[in-house]
Amino acid sequence: MNLLKDVKNLQKSDINKVVNKRLSEFSSFKNKSDKEWFSELCFCLLTANSKAKTAIAIQKELGHEGFRYKSWKELAECIRRNKHRFHNNKAKFIVGARKYSNIKNIIKNIVKSGINSSEQSEAREFLVKNIKGLGYKEASHFLRNVGYFDLAILDRHILNLMVENKLIKEKPKSLTNKTYFEIENKFRVLADKLEMSLAELDLYMWYMKTGEILK
User: One of 90, 104, 150, 155 is an active-site residue; which one?
Assistant: First the structure.
């Protein structure tokens, strides 16, 4: 499979250092404050139907305090100003998520071991069921960014690369729960073959499609 070969070649390149640095940053998030975890949750709410760069720009402008305390109107204006679609809904989701501003404690109480795969899946289920605006992709993204590496972030770049390499027949028109889990299992098989975490594989594949390694 060309994809296996391509990822292995990237591992031998300077990109390996960038990937490892980013993974280290994600791992260190476990030591960060409640407000930083909540900010990251809001960032992932903003990534749905938008580019990561747009969400990063909004996160930088609002900061930890903005996500926690600005009014719905102020949030919506900031999101609109940064050319994000659905600014009113996104602002509403952020305000609604404030109910879980202690998200760090919630997740740590679910994923007690830190590396347990079933506990990470349980944490994702909690996020999807309780935080409006988070689907499986966004919930997986959040958990990866705060240091949990055993879930797949099935965004369009990853799905397109999987189609191109015949890992899946076609890009699904909509990702139902069942479809998400089926594709995630195929992604996991690929990660196992490469002897790397799903988070590490995601960064390499994202780089292959975008030429960047963001978060």
Answer: 155
Task: Please say if 178 is a catalytic residue.
Answer: no
pLDDT in tens, 148-182: 999 999 999 999 999 999 999 999 988 899 999 99
Domain 2-27+152-210: which CATH number of 1.20.120.430, 2.70.40.10, 3.50.50.60, 1.10.1670.10: 1.10.1670.10
What is 32-145's CATH number, 3.30.2280.10, 2.10.220.10, 2.40.37.10, 1.10.340.30?
1.10.340.30
Catalytic residue of the set 137, 150, 192, 215: 137
Look up 155 and say whether it is catalytic: yes
pTM for the model: 0.94
In one-letter notation, the amino acid at residue 201 is L
How far apart, in whole angstroms, are the C-alpha atoms of residue 112 and residue 23? 20
Alpha helices in 12-111 (DSSP H): 15-28, 34-47, 52-69, 72-81, 87-97, 103-110
